[in-house]
Write a structure and sequence with these properties.
Ribonuclease iii, N-terminal Endonuclease Domain, Chain A; 7 helices; about 75% helix
Length: about 140
């Protein structure tokens, strides 16, 4: 299925497919963000990226952003959270894992809708949440 076929009605896409795409999109944004901040040592990049992409961090981001999401976005989050993945969470409890999947599904959904401005807004907030915890 090509992107234009999926974008016709991403609401019908499997939430785990959305999460798969959202995971890649979010990871890419995190890596770009860290490099733009001047991190260039691979080992440090990897360690720092893990702080942003862990299930625990993504769950915290989602729960912080949830009240600011539109009804449409909250609907996608609910579908992502309730999706049965068949895989077991590693290094995360099941609640964090489901919330992380929901966050990734939201990012994938926004990507398919070509809402780059909204993704950028959410990324900015997500980075602030993760970095604020480190400093706070």
């Amino acid at each position: 299925m090509q992107r234009e076929e999926l974008t016709r009605d991403p609401k019908l896409a499997n939430p785990l497919v959305l999460a798969f795409l959202g995971d890649a999109t979010y990871s890419h944004c995190v890596r770009y963000h860290l490099i733009a901040r001047g991190l260039v040592k691979p080992n440090l990049l990897h360690r720092e990226a893990n702080r942003y992409v862990s299930a625990k961090a993504q769950a915290r981001i989602l729960l912080t952003l949830l009240p600011t999401l539109t009804e449409e976005e909250q609907s996608v989050v609910k579908r992502g959270r309730n999706a049965k993945s068949g895989s077991v969470a590693k290094n995360a409890d099941i609640i964090d894992y489901r919330h992380a999947t929901a966050f990734e599904a939201l990012i994938g959904y926004l990507y398919l809708h070509e809402r780059e401005d909204r993704i950028a807004q959410i990324m900015q907030q997500a980075f602030a949440i993760v970095e604020g915890e480190q400093n706070g």
